[in-house]
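Lab notebook, bench 4. We co-purified these components, and the gel suggests they stay together. Before we commit to crystallization screens, I want a quick structural picture of the whole thing.
Request: model the full complex, all chains together.
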Amino acid sequence: MKPFENGCSPLTVFDIKRYAINDGPGIRTTIFLKGCPLRCVWCHNPESWLPKPEILFKQQKCIGCNTCGIHPHQREMLTRMTNDESRFARNDECELPSNLESDSYSSSVTRHSSFVTRHSSFVTRHSSFDIRHSSFDIRHSSFDIRHSSFDIRHSSFKDCPTLALEMCGRDYTVEELLAEIEKERDIMIDSGGGVTISGGEPLFGMTHDQSRFARNDECALSSDMESDSYSSLVTRHSSFVTRHSSFVIRHSSFVIRHSSFVIRHSSFVIRHSSFVISYSSS
Amino acid sequence: MNFTIKHPENEGGMNERIRRLRQQNFDTPTTLSIERALIETEFYKQNYGTMSTPVLRAKNFYEICKRKSIYIGEDELIVGERGPKPKAVPTFPELTCHSVEDLHTLNSRQLQPYTISQEDIDTYEREVIPYWKGKTQRERIFNHVSKEWEEAYHAGVFTEFMEQRAAGHTAMDGKMYGEGLLDVKARIEKRIAELDYINDPEATDKQQELEAMAISCDAAILFAERHAELAEKMAEELEREMTNDESRFARNDECDNSSFVTRHSSLEYRVLELRKIADVCRWVPAHAPRDMWEAIQMYWFVHLGTVTELNGWDSMNPGHIDQHLWPFYEKGVKDGTLTRDQAKELLSCLWIKFNNQPAPPKVGVTALESGTYNDFTNINIGGVDREGNSAANELSYIILEIQEELHELQPGLSIHIAENTPDEFLLEGIKVIRQGHGYPSIFNPDTYIKELVREGKSLEDAREGGCSGCIEVGAFGKEAYLLTGYLNTPKILEITLNNGIDPETGKKLGLETGDPREFKSYEELYDAWHKQMVYFVNLKLSVNNYIERMFSLYAPATFLSLYIDDCIEKGKDYYSGGARYNTTYIQCTGLGTITDCFSTLKKHVFEDKRYTMDEVLQACAKNWGGGEAMRLYIRNHTPFFGNDDPYADEIAVRVYDDLVKAIEGRPNTRGGKTQLNMLSTTCHNYFGSVCGATPNGRYAHFAISDGTSPSHGSDTHGPTAVIKSLGKLDQTKSGGTLLNVRFTPALLRRDEDMKKLGYLIRTYFKFGGHHIQFNIVDTATLLDAQKHPDQYRDLLVRVAGYSDYFNDMTEQLQNEIIARTENEAV
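Here is the predicted assembly.
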């Protein structure tokens, strides 16, 4: 990780929402950081899971114009689980009860939320870390497929007329983010609003330096954070979290829901976050 | 800020009287009345050519006031109708004479019919139509215009407001509440006595005009007197009825004692009301009103006089009514003669009157471009007084309550939020906005005062100004500002892209500015459009001035002139430069669409060279047939207006500034100047329907953008980005801009959300915004949004703990949200 002028590495952002009126007091700008250690089935933003920019393929938007030049087969691979395999997994073919072993680390999960909900046994079966770990390899291989086609697509995804292929996530330097925030300064100040850092899990993979940004030392606007506190940073920087008093209270229900999960998997987190660091530096 | 209901005692809303009047108003069909046309035709047949035009018009007005049917409804407190009964619309054959076919169409059409009997159609054909043949204002205008003008007009490059109706957009200041018509008449007579026939070459003209104004005073007083007589007659009849009742009761015919008492006391009460109505109508408009009731009735007579004399667009507006009526309210409450509820009831009666006046039906192109069948009375409340202090008072809050309870089509309501207007007032207004009726709209006096001062008004007169109908502003009671028609800026680009030829009609309408395929740079393209735009503006202006003269010569407004300073002092008519300020407006539409078109061509053709000009033009010619990928690429990869993106916003600012330069400061015939205005009303639909596919990915014949709003679905960065883009235009150079924002009701559910909307409005106004209005969308819109997602990319809806763009959701989630909204509606 290269330090930047202000001593802070860039943050991967997958969305910036202006006129956010439900993320804290006043009118806010919410910055959604990419990367989350959790794989909740009810997640609204599964595209926020991977801590790196990635190309999303939204089949519903694809008009098959082939501007991207990606072979239909490859496109299919991008949505492997959305089509044939998910049909199979749902057992449309054989009409036998089916369960799925998965760490839910796939974009197809959310696109087919109905599919996931049908598999109620799905979540409970993954309580043991071993099973998860075994599926880790499977996930990793599909991950490779995605990234191998990345090179082909790299030049062409930008041409997608419909944004069916779209780069999700962009690395922002702190200066760039501050410039985005600056656009809304007037209305933030008038309304007593500010910036909300959300995710993904904003503390996931966040370094101490970056947390300075989240504390908003730079732009002197009120800042909040939406977090499930599922991060080693929380414990390491307890003083940081306490400064954001609204943060814990607002998300208390969420934290309670996840509390058992957090404790059980605390060792996993540390491992996982180190994986991310090694991955992103490679 | 607090959100308690200000006056819990009024929570129940309308009282029984208002409920009945409102219901009656809804149940009454719109009919066409030939009464006015018959009186006028007969008068013209006997008198045309025997006297000067102003005197002829005034005597014609007098004749109508003397002879038209008088109506007083059962529950009414405020009396008087334009036609013989509520919603009976008179015609104005001196301006436009409807043909027999027009009348049949109006009678039988599905949408917005105007019922008229066959007998009346026959009478109209026999008595009215033959006399006016060749003599109407409309024919005078169309016989004069050049072929170029006519072709551009029929192709939809611009419209012409004044070809079949008089100018409207008239709002009153407070002078009528301090001066009766007898006082006005005395002033006129004094002015006549002062005329210098030897040294003032215009003295004779002035004398004729002033004499006509004096006749108009008499006419309105007579009109009121006839209402007094009818009220008295009705009271006497009721008394007779009561006497009969009593004698029957005495004879013991009537057994039910309690029903008799109820009936008797209500009749007794109505008799008292009718006597009061008679008293009021004998006092106003001849004298200055003494209480709230008289003040409201005073306004209503002035309103009726104006819309009986001529049929101005946006008819007529009381101006800052909360300020004008405040002294009467304050005094009445203080000395115990008026309660809050009584004031509210009287105002509600006036509100129902406003909704009783559908517009005289339009014909031709104007009927196509104007989807409205009501004249707008946009009630202004709040704002500032002549000294610049915040003017919101108790009556402003009462009016908000009335608007919410009655929620009729008319009057419209606007709240005026200056920097010094209390937050409490803004929030009460937002509460009404939340109901989803589309009003009140919100205006920024701090900006429009600057606009008016920039146009040359004194600061005090500017502060007294406001909005009359849509978003156009003027100095109330002191200005004759004529809106003359809309300019279709995207259509001008279409013509430019076809080297002067309109592909829809195949006619050469514009200049030959060159084949755009040969253009080497974006600047060349822009220059070509600019030349065409200036050409069409000039074409329109040349006819504007002619039409102004026709009104001055054939249709002076001698009654309206009584109430517009300084017509009496100058001895000149409203249409002849009598007003203190005289402005002519051209309303430009489609700023969002044309900006997006320029942005598309600049980026993809001239800079990135992704497409050639030829490819884009061919795609437009084929209405994107076979070019869907290209169209979607443009829709998704172009910086569009309304996203706080400097690339597009700079284009918008340039287009806007050039429109201002082309239009502003051109002299009109009344000693005033032409100005730019940025409203579209419903014309953006008509303008879209005559315009083929445009480079911004818009399909042929689809609506262009409205007012200064971003084009459909182009603003994807939320309302704060929209207001920032709009804030880059120097809105003080216009006579009004218009911004529509769509929200779902859920975005305003919590009190906290209303506060946040308040901040959004305040911030926009700090950026110099003129006007903003919110559309709280319903299910029908959401369903349409599902069918046409491209048009609704800016539709923000609340999902759960967050809000999202409707278009960005899966179909399931959309369906779920639609289901939710429907549940809310039940």
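Residues 254 and 701 of chain B are 69 Å apart (CA to CA). Worth comparing against the SEC data before the next meeting. Residues 777-826 of chain B form one domain.
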